[in-house]
Amino acid sequence: MGAAxxxxxxxxxxxxxxxxxxxxxxxxxxxxxAEVQRLLEVELADVTLAWREASTPVVLLGCTGDRVRIxxxxxxxxxxxxxxxxWPSVDRERVLALAIAQLFLTSWLELLxxxxxxxxxxxxxxxxxxxxxxxxxxxxxxxxxxxxEPVVEAPRPEPVDVxxxxxxxxxxxxxxxxxxxxSLEGGTRMRLDxxxxxxxxxxxxxxxxxxxxxxxxxxxxxxxxxxSRMRGDIDVYAATLGIGAAWRTPNLGPxxxxxxxxxxxxxxxxxxxxxxxxxxxxxxxAIAAEAQVEVxxxxxxxxxxxxxxxxxxxxxxxxDGEVTDEPPVIVGGPFFAAALRVxxxxxxx
Length: 349
Fold this sequence. Notes:
The chain is an alpha+beta fold. The chain has helices spanning about 35-45, 90-110, 125-145; strands spanning about 5-10, 15-25, 60-65, 65-75, 80-85, 180-190, 200-210, 215-230, 230-250, 255-275, 285-300, 305, 310-315, 320-325, 325-330, 335-345.
């Protein structure tokens, strides 16, 4: 902690009065001493006519940490007064000058003023002190009062040309890609009721493949079977027209599979062929319906698709082949189907 010496001298004249201050404060590095000197002269200017120079008081400033100590000593009488302040956060020089002026005026006014030598018309000690206190209160009030906010005129909005963004028409969804397939197939059907009648089948199928994933098509097929009894043979003919749809799995190399459902109408003809003239033959014609689920593992070789369709279905409303005194020929009921199908895709050529 150090101390700073401030020397103050006042010259009193009949017409003018001024205070010359020389300030030194090595330990108060954060204080602008020139600004303190200027402000102190302003604070004391209004009351310098109230006294004459009696002695040169010494003002000592000591700065340490967040505090500053002001001590004023009369070198003649060795009288001193002191005051300790907490450093203000802002405007330090102004507050320091006010504190020195207040301590000087209130503590040394009576000592420095010689009533007999006062200039005529100059304020007395009490009036000088009142003026000093009023000046300091006004300065402190001005310091603590927030400055008036400047009136900022809102800028005049400039005209803005509003341009509608270009309207981009929604992109049309791409049309589904379709491929046609034409296939021939041959296989067998085995009835699962009665004597497990097996029929040979052949068919023609036309299908439309959508996005290589959905298959819809028509199938025209024929069947034939012959079964024997003691009294003769019974021939079974069937013509089938069906419609179906299937889901085609993604390709695994050249392999894929169709998983589908087919429904069809059947025209059935059962014809009896007697073994002797003594037995009377007969023919039965009927309409039946069938439904079938099918899985068809497939292999693609260029434009050719080779498939092995396997299915389970049921034939409803089919008549039985009646034989006198012998078991009937059961045509309807559940069945298992297997075939070999060869299809071509014309667009692949």
